[in-house]
Amino acid sequence: MNRTALIVGASGITGSNLAHELISQGWTTYGLARNPNKVDGMYPVAADLLDPESLTAALAEVAPTHVFITSWMRMETEAENIRVNAAMVRNLLDALAPKKSVQHVALVTGLKHYLGPFEAYAKEGFLPETPLREEQPRLDIENFYYAQEDEVYAAAARDNFTWSIHRPHTVIGKAVGNQMNLGTTLAVYASICKESGRPFRWPGSEAQWNGLSDVTDARVLAKHLVWAATTEAAHNEAFNVVNGETFRWKWLWKRLANWFGVEYVGFDGTIHPLETEMANDGPLWQQIAERHNLVEPDLNRLASPWHTDLDLGRPIEVMTDMSKSRKLGFTVYQQTEESFFDLFAQLQKDRLIP
């Protein structure tokens, strides 16, 4: 079949990995971003999702059969998150509507669907039962993920396409300039610890240190997106998507430290936020980048400690149930420590860490 994909947010962790997956399967693939990366086999589309006129012009010659929305924009308040991120989805689908080409729209959100938005994230009164399951109802609080979903549902009813919602846990994969990048943040933190002689100290909560967790390899998420888009039984459904195994950070942390050859310190009774720990490391990273001939001297382009602190500081263990996808035939599995080790090796190869 002639399938044409439009990836929205093609420069991010999810979008860039999805591009490689689609291209490897022979899809005609367009990548939309404000500054799209160059990917062999992908046609770049430069557009601003908040500017309907520029969006319409940029998509004038693009008639996708499948749309994958992996992009969002962080604002100061949840009300602004809702206004801006809902508008991005709405503007995109409005621009595509006259073409009547779209058969399926996939939207990537995440576990804030269950844990609450940034302003009330994993707080008392909003703590769900785990493992997280798709059947759990929306929280009684405003959430930009809900607003994005509602825009997809409304456009699907209007334009008669199918949809899928994908809720990954923390996504592990390579990207530069990404707003939520735990894997690369930990790689940069470990590199700084090695260069400075500081210990690789656990920054989060006791619940996260001792409790069960899971993550989502960007390569698994890419395969899940394509699977749901092309599997009739998966249409018009929401899915959790993770690696397929659980782990404890107290088990994984020492393995990450060993990969870098640094001393590690586990939970010591106190949370040590990375946002504080790394607050003054910008000049040090510039020195490290110069010493090792790295390609990105700007620490803020690689690390997102605020987001890593959100994940690792949660007061409950968090893992997700994947049985809904499994029952419908999605059987991809990924060992989590290899997700991290593959990422670290890629970052070294691309001269992003020493």
Characterization of the model:
The chain has 354 residues and is α/β, with parallel strands linked by helices. It has two domains: 4-168, Rossmann fold; 178-214 and 246-318 and 335-350, no CATH class. Helix content is 42%, strand content 14%. It contains 15 helices and 13 strands. It has helices at residues 13-24, 52-58, 78-96, 112-115, 144-159, 182-196, 206-210, 218-230, 249-260, 274-277, 282-292, 299-302, 305-312, 323-327, 336-349; strands spanning 4-8, 28-33, 42-46, 66-69, 104-108, 162-168, 171-172, 200-201, 212-213, 216-217, 237-241, 247-248, 264-265. It has a seven-stranded parallel beta sheet, sandwiched between helices. It has a two-stranded parallel sheet with strand order 7-10. A two-stranded parallel ribbon has the order 8-13. Helix 1 (13-24) links the parallel strand 1 and strand 2 (28-33). Helix 1 (13-24) packs across helix 8 and helix 3 (78-96) packs parallel to helix 5. The chain starts with a strand and ends in a 5-residue tail after the last helix. The model has no long low-confidence stretch (mean pLDDT 95). Residues 65-292 form the PRISE-like Rossmann-fold domain. It comes from Pontibacter korlensis.
